[in-house]
Design brief:
This protein has helices at residues 3-13, 39-42, 54-64, 68-73, 75-78, 86-89, 122-132, 155-168, 191-197; strands spanning 19-23, 28-36, 90-98, 106-109, 135-138. By secondary structure, it is of the alpha+beta class. A 5-stranded mixed beta sheet has the order 1-2-3-5-4. The protein starts with a helix and ends in a 5-residue tail after the last helix.
Amino acid sequence: MNYLDLYKKLKEFYTQEPGVYQNPELSITLTNNYFNSDVKKAFPPGDEYQDMNPLMKALMKYFLGRNEYSDKYLLKMLTVPDMAISENNRFTYSILSSTGTVSTEAIVLLHGLNERGWEKYLPWAYYLIKNTGKSVILFPNAFHMNRAPASWSDFRMMKEIAIERKKSVTGCCSLKSRKCCNFYPTSICTPEVCLLRNPNYQ
């Protein structure tokens, strides 16, 4: 079986729903279990938004007040403490193993940043299973994969937000003559950026 065919079969087979699934053709078993993260130990006490520097809160309010999509889809998440995001606290992780065998060892397979799904890692996991005899655990990093709100992976929604962010950092602010832009490209000079770089400008 070539790589592309294997990828398609694994992608079709894979799910993150809790339970045990078997693929007779590939002779692998997929087990998905729930994991509960002890957020009290993972995060420091306090509310990171409420405890934020007043300048940063002012900049956030300024930006969101002028950008409809960012305000609609990001404001709720930005003002909610990290420890309160339920998707990050309770989630499923996957164990892939050869069907009919018992392995006393496992390989934990992590992923890169900003990843949305495990699909491209499945052939790698399959190769490890078949060539090492060990099970493979697919464990998501915090706020990635299925540990993040679904809206964060919605391309259309995030595209609108990206467009708003680009607009906020194009052109040059009218404060250039006051030297707030020294040593910075004018393409990223905006009033809010100038305020962040130099809180004392007038």
